[in-house]
Each structure stands twice: as structure tokens, then as C-alpha cells.
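Work through this:
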Amino acid sequence: MGRPVIHWELWTNNPDKLSDFYAKTFDWKVHPNKETKYDMVETGGKGGINGGILKPEREGPWPGNMTLYIAVDDLGAYRKRVIEAGGTLSTAVDISQATIGEVA
């Protein structure tokens, strides 16, 4: 059985422009938060998932321009599967204490 994507993030140098594009093009509801510099996005589609738009705190190049958050039942096992499939881990963290914000 596949593992579901539960959240996504788009990375950009211009969050306002990108948020406006998706709001106008797809009727997504974007909720900017200037304090956190993170725009929460409600896609509104049946069966769809919501996400966020942000400018990363560090300068690029970034490993990609998006992040997918995927629900798994055993984080350690899936980290091994990523490596075995040829992927890399962007950060080393103590996975016993991991939260959605610490592992991407």
C-alpha cells in the first residue's frame, strides 16, 4: 500500500508572487503570515491536500524547489529505504525525537 503525501511546500525567492499565481490560477486560498514568513495554502479540492509557500532562510541553491511530507509508520525503516533506493538524507537528526518539522 502506498504512503500518502500529507503536506507540501513550494520554495521560492518571491512567495507573494507565487502565492498570487496559485490563488488566481487555481482559486486556492492563501493565508500569508508575515511574522512567520510562511503562507498556508488551502487547495479546496476534494481529496486534495493543503500546503505552504515560503522563502527558505538560507540562500540557494536548494536541494529542490518543493518539499513533500509523507506519512510513514516507521521513520527509521523508511530512512533506510530512501538510502537503499539511491536517495540521500539532507540532515542528520535523532529520529527518536523527530517531528514533522525536523525530518523532510
In short: Helices lie at 15-26, 75-84.
